[in-house]
Each structure stands twice: as structure tokens, then as C-alpha cells.
Specification:
The complex is a heterodimer of chains A (about 550) and B (about 280). With about 550 residues, chain A is of the alpha/beta class. In chain A, about 40% of the residues lie in helices and about 15% in strands. A 5-stranded mixed sheet of chain A has the order 2-1-3-4-5, with helices on one face. In chain A, strands 10-11-9-8-12 form a 5-stranded mixed sheet, sandwiched between helices. In chain A, helix 8 crosses helix 11 (about 245-260). The longest helix of chain A has 18 residues, at about 490-510. The model of chain A has no long low-confidence stretch (mean pLDDT about 95). Chain B is of the alpha+beta class. Chain B is about 25% helix and about 20% strand. Chain B has helices spanning about 35-40, 95-110, 115-125, 150-160, 190-195, 235-245, 260-275, and strands at about 15-20, 25-30, 65-70, 75-80, 90, 165-170, 175, 205, 210-215, 220-225, 230-235. In chain B, strands 2-1-5-3-4 form a 5-stranded mixed sheet, with no helix packed on it. In chain B, strands 8-9-10-11 form a 4-stranded antiparallel sheet. A two-stranded antiparallel ribbon of chain B has the order 6-7. In chain B, a hairpin with a 5-residue loop joins strand 9 (about 210-215) and strand 10. Classes of the chains: A alpha/beta (about 550), B alpha+beta (about 280).
Amino acid sequence: MTGVFDRAAGEVAGQKKILPGKPRIAVGLATCGIAVGGEKVYERLQEIIKKTDADISLTKTGCIGYCREEPLVNITIPGKPLVILHKVTEEDAEGIVEAVKKGTVPYKKALCRVPSWDHVTGTVITYGNGFDEIPLYADVPFFKHQKKVILRNAGFINPEDIDEYLAVGGYATAEQALTRMDSETIISEVEKSGLRGRGGAGFPTGMKWRITRDAPGAAKYIICNADEGDPGAYMNRNEMESDPHMLIEGMIIGAYAMGAKKGLIYIRAEYPLAIRRLVHAIGEARALGLLGKNIIGAGFDFDIRIATGAGAFVCGESTALVASIEGRTGRPHPRPPRLTDPGGGLWGIPSDLNNVETWCNIPVIIRNGSGWYAKIGAEKNAGTKVFSLVGKVDRVGLVEVPLGTSLNTIVCDIGNGGAQGKKVKAVQTGGPSGGCIPVRLFDTPVNYESLNAVGSIMGSGGIVVMDEDTDMVDIARYFINFATGESCGKCVPCREGLRHTLILLNRLIARKGTAKDLETLALLADTIKNTSLCGLGQSAPNPVLTTLAYFREEYDALVKP
Amino acid sequence: MTQGKTGTELAEPPKKPVTVSINGNAYRADEGECLLTVAERVKIPIPHFCFEQSLEPYGACRLCMVGVVHHGKTVMETACTLRAKEGLTILTDTPDIVKYRTILFELYLAEAPKSAVVKEMAARYGVTKTRFLRRVDTGDPLGGACVLCGLCVRVCNEIMGAGAINFINRGPYTVVNTPFTEPSRDCFGCGACAAICPTHAVRIEDRDGVRILHSWSETKVPLSQCVSCGKYFAPAALEKSVLSRIEPPLRDDLAGLCPACRAKKLAKKEILAATGGDPGDA
């Protein structure tokens, strides 16, 4: 199959895998599913199918994001809707195979049914009708308020099989871009779509692409930032584990638009499965002529390599990330020069750095047009965003909503409020760089500006829920402890300031602090925020500053009278 | 504003003269010149630890933060990374800068409690006490005076090309030393680290023909002895490295001599030649 790209052949092969004309069982096997026993379920199913010689196709998928209900298993019976089973154990395997053999599903295990699924890139897979007693996907409260654009394929296709990606419209956009569009059209589409960087800072993606393309010199690099390091955040992990090809496709389109022949994915070593699936996917793409020389027969050369990090949070910062790829210590340097500047990028070559999720948006924008994309979300905040809703929330999982959705919708409607019926007190957005937002501000729409206005940030998309039992000073201490350990140690406010913030917090929590210490804490946090060299230090005090602003009484209660 | 007036024609062609405003006064500078250099030249004090003209701006000590006035708004930036351009307006002592600088000095006083330089500098800006817990480490090879400005590391790696020392660990555990805190085999013993250290924290001692770098894991570097006067004059490795790079090479009859003896020998030769003696006797 090497050489000229033949999308149609793969598409047909993939359709036969997704709708094989016989029952198909697909086990959700992203890291989350594996952690709760998904692999055991898979092995047991395999064993039973083999033993009973059942005519069932068994495969794996990524994750649809409903973490609380895992392991999840999809059943497709010809002509019937796809049924998602939840909390499946090894013991359920026998019953599942029995039911499927009879052309039905174990109703007790059914979470919802999906009669058809829109894969957004132009393909709708129609499964069928029936099983009316099982709730519809769109009626499940966890899914009801969501809009899947980025996670369009997650949990439906086998991430280790490029044919399935092709069957749901995959690489059709790359083909369209490389054969029928020019650089200017693509960049202007991305600009008009209003897409902003999903790594957290929200810089307009199209503008960054234009700057990179127009930077002096013929050589350009594009880099994908997959160094997701916020505690409680795992959006990018699932995006790569469940649908690695959408990232590759986004990068191919970007490379073509910016004239880059080389792409790099900088991924943290703590994501072994994501790395494995990406390596596999890159291999598949090369074999089909989607990467390498003269890709898609369009006379354009582009290839992707993977660089793994060594577990440093600060390496998500652009200049530290580049230093790390070059084999130097991951320490940021003052900007400018920015990555897009000559001399500032990787090996001094102008480079474009985008987050995983930013890249994943590209195929849908080019496929459906900037006008379509710009209508999703809110003003100046186009599109959807994936959030990992974790902590003391009832329905833990990955949530994709249009930007501008209120915290209330995310935490209360989708998340169903506190776990075990407890009252929610606050959420932390943006990880250790973000802030704590109290429940009284839950009508805040989740967009870049509104979150900044309440002292937090969008960040990469972690939302950690705290309930009435959560000690907010302790939360601040947790994040400061994290940031202190992850500070690179270059500039004094971050290196020394965070250490003393931690000392002060510990003193307060030990009830040895004074009102004076509290005053010093506030001043120190303010200093770190305003004088640090890079984004890590500038945002690290946010948990302290926001808890001081919104939960001052908890601090006051710790101070000796 | 004053572009094109007298003096322009005297300037080097690639360097465009510009006027920058510091604390309300106008000063001449070359376009693109480092603002900290401009301030130093016109004697406006801006404190700093990590800046050195021969190295790239590092932006780590944060002490040289100034307020950049732009469209009526003041934004803080480090003067070492700021480049002079026409109309650049900065303020060195805004209330914000004074407030933050005070805290930064207090952090330095706690980090390097043994440094007299830090104490003096902080006192110049009215900071004599720190609210923060002082670091106490009796075994610190830098004697509790290191502020991690990175100048020693950068001069060793970027200028000397020795790469004998570097940062170890990260965050608050960062220290500077040799790899695995073992005596370095890469160290020339040039002493540039000690010379450049703003807080004089690097301890080096010459004893019995050996240079001992106490701060760098007791690295020992043999010194060359002058074949004439017997004085130890330079680390042998450094001498070898320097001599290997000069063109034309050092004359054979000057080999092994210390600079003083070399000068003496050359002078004697000149005198003998001038007075009709045999220069070969020198």
C-alpha cells in the first residue's frame, strides 16, 4: 500500500470493520478503561468468543469520556443501534456474548443507545433502530449538554486501525487541503474560524500560523505540545489515545499551510499508551503515503517525529519545551525571541507550537468551513473545549462543551453536583496555574476572558471540584507544593518565593501563623505573579490569591487571635 | 524626536541613535542597545545580579525590573531584556517596582544570608530585614552567598567552553556544582567563575603549585611553574589551551616562562640588540 494514497480503499475496508455485517463488541481501552479492568474484560470476551466459536467481531475503542461508568463496552448488532454498556466486569462477559448471539444486549448493563453518530468530518454512521427501552445517548444527563467536535470519534473507532479513521471521514480533509487549497486559504480559514490556542493562553491560532509561515527562512518546524501536566487534567491523553489520527491530520494540514517539512510531537513520558498509539498511527500513516515524501501525491513532503519529555511540568512552557527537545535542561528563557522568531524556535528555526487539542480542531474547521466553526461557542471564543471534570463531583469524566457554557452547566447539570450528595463549594480551573472559583460565581461562562476576570485561567482544561468538606487553605497548599517542586529554579520569585509561600501556608495550617503572616502571604503571592520570568511562576500563586479573595474566612480562622 | 540632529553623522552606520526617557530625562542611546547598559552609562542605578555585557541577557534575578510607559499604561519589564528604541519611556522607581523590589531583596536576604554584597545592595534600597526564613546550610560550598544568578555557569559553558559546572536539581533545591559533585576533569582552573560572581561566593585558593576550587567539589588543577623564577603563574591546562590557539605560536625561547619573566627576557633582548651586545645571551 506504500506510495500513492488511496483513501477510498481504506474507507471501504474501515466501513466493513465498523459495520461488519455481524455483531461487533468494542471494549473501551484507553488508559482510564484499562485502569478499571477493561483489558480483563477484553481478554475474557475474547476467550468466550473463541470457546463458543461465536461469529462476533471483537475490537477495542478509545474512550467516550464517561469515566465514572467505566469499563464501557459498545455492542453493534446489524440494523440495531449501537449500545453502550457500562461498569462491565469480567463476570458480565459471558452474559454479553450470550445476549449478542441472540441478537440482543444485556439490558441491565445498558447505559444508552446510539442510532446514528455524526463524526463531524462529513460522515454520519447509521447503526439502526430498536432497543427502545434503553435511553437515547442524547437523553443521558451526562451527554445531554455536551457537543462532540474534538472527541468526534473517541469511543467509536479503533484508534489502532487507520481504516476505521478513514471510514469516518478521516484524512478526507487533508486530501482536500493538499490537493485543492493553498496556504493562504487554509490560514485565512483558521483565522476566520476564531480558533484560539487550547493549551490555555488562547492565542489566535491562525495568526500564529501566519507569523510562522511569514517568518524569514525556508525551513519551518511545527510542534505539538502534548506535555499535559496539570494535576487532574487528561484531555490530551484521551484525545491521543482515542483518536491519534485526528492529531496527525491536523498537523499535516498545518504543515502544508506553513510550509513545514518536519513536525514534532513533544509528549510526556508518563503517557506510554498515548506514545504507543501515536507511534503506531504515524507508522500507519507513512505506509499509506500520508507522511513522508510526496504525501497524498500532492508533491509535499512532511513527516512527524516524537520527542518524549522527562516529567517536568515547566517543559510545557514553549521556550523550556524547545530546550528540552534540543537536549538542554528544560528552563525557560525570556521572550522575545519567541518560537516563531528566527533564532527562537527549535534549533533556531522559526517554529509553530500548538496544543494537541488545537491541532485536533483543524480537520473539522477546514472540512466544515470557518463559518460553521465560528457559530459554535461564544463571541471571541469559538468552538468547543474538552474539560476533565474531576474531584468531588458525582459524574467524573471528560466533558466537551461549547465555549461560553456556564460552570453551573458543567458542574451541576453534566456533573450532577457533589459526589455522594455533598454540596459543591468551588472549582479549580486551569490546574496549578488556575484559581479557585466559588459556587456563587458558577454562572461565569467558561471562556478565556471571564475566567481571567474571576482570577483563574482556562488552562488546558482541568476542572477540579471541591465540596463542603474541602479545606481551601489546604487546596492552596497542595497546588503551591506542586508548583514549588516543578519550578525550574531560574528566577528568584518562583524559586524562593514559592518555597516561602509554602512555608507560610504550612505555618498557617499548623495554627502557628499570625495576621502578619497572612499579610506577607498576600504580598508575596502578588510579587511572584507580577515578577516571575515565565508563565509557571506568573500563574503559580493563583490558587493562593483566589482562595484569599473568595475564602478569606478560612484563612482568618487559622490565625491566632 | 531629536533624530537627525548633531551627532548622528558621528555614529557608526548600523547603529541608529535614538532618544530614550528614563525617569523623565532624555538620554541618547543606540537603537537596540540593552537598556541596562544605557542606564549604567548615564549613572542611573538599577540593581541586578545576573547581567553581564558579554553574555546574552538572562532575565533571572528580576531585580532590574523597570516600568515601561506605553500609551499611558506602565508595564513592568526587566531592563536587561529591554532594547532601546526611539521614544522608549521607562521609570525605575514606581510604587509597584519599589514594592516588588523590596520583596525580592527580602527573598535574596533569606536565600543568601551570608552575603555582604546582598546586604549592602539591599540596604541601598532601604531593605535591611527579611520577613522570610533564612537558609541555614553550614556545609554550603558557596558559603551561603550564592544567589543562583547563573553567571558562573554561563561563563564556564558559553565563554570558556569548559562546561565544568552547571545547575543541579531544580526549583528551590537548585545548586551550582560539578557533575555528581565530584572533582571536575573539565575545569581549566581559569577562575572566571570567581571573577564574575557578583556576591564573591566562589572560593578558590592557590596552594603548593595547585589551584584548589573549594566551591566546586574541591577540584584541583595543577599550576604551571615558571622555568626561570620558579613562581606558579597559571593553571597548566589553561596555559596549554590558550597557547594552542595563538597564531603565530609562542616562540620556543619564551616557553615555560611566567609573564613577568617573559617581559624581562624580551626587554633584555631589545636592550642588548640596541647596545650591540649579543641578543643570544638574553
